[in-house]
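Single Protein Entry

Contents — chain, fold
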Amino acid sequence: MRLPDLRIQQAIAIADARGVKVIASSPEFDTAEAERIASLFGARPAGVRCPLAYFACPFAKQHVAVVQVEDRPGSGDPLGFRFLVLSRELYHHLGDPFAISERYPVNWNISGTLPDLTWPMEVLPERTIEQLDGILKHGDGPLLLGATQAIVDGCRVLISRDAPEEQLVRDLWQLLPDRTRAERWPASFAFSDELGFHVAIGPGIVPTPSESKPLPEEAVRDYPSSSYELNLQIAIESGDRVALRRLLARRTLQDTVRLAIYIVVFALVVAVLFRFVL
């Protein structure tokens, strides 16, 4: 089996009233794309702080950006953006932007040329019954479960807060199937909906006009229960590790549609060949 590209490009960008500027980066880093993404993160509302936030989003056509955002000292309320850019294939194997970012601590004081990083030859630890049981017992269960089912169903979720809710989004990401979280984009804080996050926390974010209008918190809490959410709770409460492992490896809706198309095409090819043989 071919291994994914393990290289990770990195960069530091600063955004303030004058705009966005990349001040440090790997040699082949796409600075224009990073500046575009940092700009679409949104303009900071007056009085709103961002002590720490994370988000992930597509980076050009073949890559994913995992971004850490923090307030930086200086005039004009600057924001610092630390970019880690990895191949989509590697991101699909990992799917957890929080774990990816924490693997590589950020140094905000560097500038100039940065070396590429390398992901080690290992996968992230398997999620456990105990871990997920703790999330549901100590977290906001109705919001977490409603958001989990909504995102599995292909909806977007937008929750209004004046400060980052990192733990909420971290917990939500632990409850999602592997394939779903590898194909969805979270933000524990954002100032706009321009990057099309599938779940985002933010201060009065106005949804962008699109076919996938995000659900507000009230709708998420009242979101109808369905098979994934219910089976997840049953597996966790009963301690069924096999069922949990099967649920977390669940296909996405896109996978199911793709498989159905393959089956139909295969059946048509077999039918045509059978006619010619006869």
